[in-house]
Amino acid sequence: MGLSTRLRKKIKPRLPDGVRIYAIGDVHGRADLLQSLLTVIDADLAKSNPGRAIQVFLGDYVDRGPDSRGVLDLLIERSKTHETVCLKGNHEVFLLEVLKDPARLQEWRHYGGLLTLVSYGITPTMNPTAEQQTELIEALNRAIPPEHLAFLQQLPSSFTCGDFFFVHAGVKPGIALDRQKDEDLLWIREEFLESERRFGKYVVHGHTPVSTPDIRPNRINIDTGAYATGNLTLLTIQGDSLLAI
User: Calcineurin-like phosphoesterase domain: which residues (predicted)?
Assistant: First the structure.
């Protein structure tokens, strides 16, 4: 299921004793890959039975891939039977904005939004007029189940456990973690990616696709471009051990 690699031994951020975290990178409509990883997690849980298992999803569940609706169905069902933390990604924010402002549909299409429309049974034209854009978004508002909308509206921007900070895109260097702005947590790239400073906690993130999990002394990026590569990464953390699959 991809490259397995361990964090360099000299870096030892830790989780509390008895806690295991399963973190999954950007899904982007690949419900098939998500289901496969959930099966892997279930098998591991049945075999090892950790004291407390937390499943953390790093955002960007919709757009680009073929089954955004199916991804949200899986996450909502998963949260009913397991301890899960589903974080907000910039694509979830953009979807909510489009639902309020149909004029942003043309911009959304550049983010792979038309595939999200199709997953809800809506077939857009290639170049919809302003009137057609309004009609498409009205249809999407009708098609999205209330539980999907509630899920999207309640997503947190970050999650902290032990020495780890989980977030979609990253953090702004030099700003305390509890003072970060959503714009940076959801959208930041170069300023964060190029920084070698420590951020207060070890950052686990996605947002910027990499060919294999990118392990640095201050962060790990587990967005392996699932919608394009077919490789959705699962990161398992227990104690000070990290394993990316």
Answer: 20-211
Q: Phi first, then psi: what are they for 129, rounded to 5°? A: -70, 170
Chain segment 172-200, per-residue pLDDT in tens: 999 999 999 999 999 999 999 999 999 99
CA distance linking residue 195 with residue 218, whole number of Å: 9
CA 7 to chain centre: 21
Across all residues in the chain, what is the average pLDDT? 94
d(CA 245, CA 230): 13
Helix axes 130-143, 90-100, angle to 10 degrees: 110
160 φ/ψ angles, rounded to the nearest 5 degrees: -120, 135
Provide mean pLDDT across the span 4-17.
69
At residue 79, does pLDDT exceed 50?
Answer: yes
Provide φ and ψ at 206, rounded to 5°.
Answer: -135, -130
Residues whose CB is less than 8 angstroms from the CB of residue 31 and which lie 6 or more positions away in sequence, other chains included: 65, 67, 70, 71, 73, 74
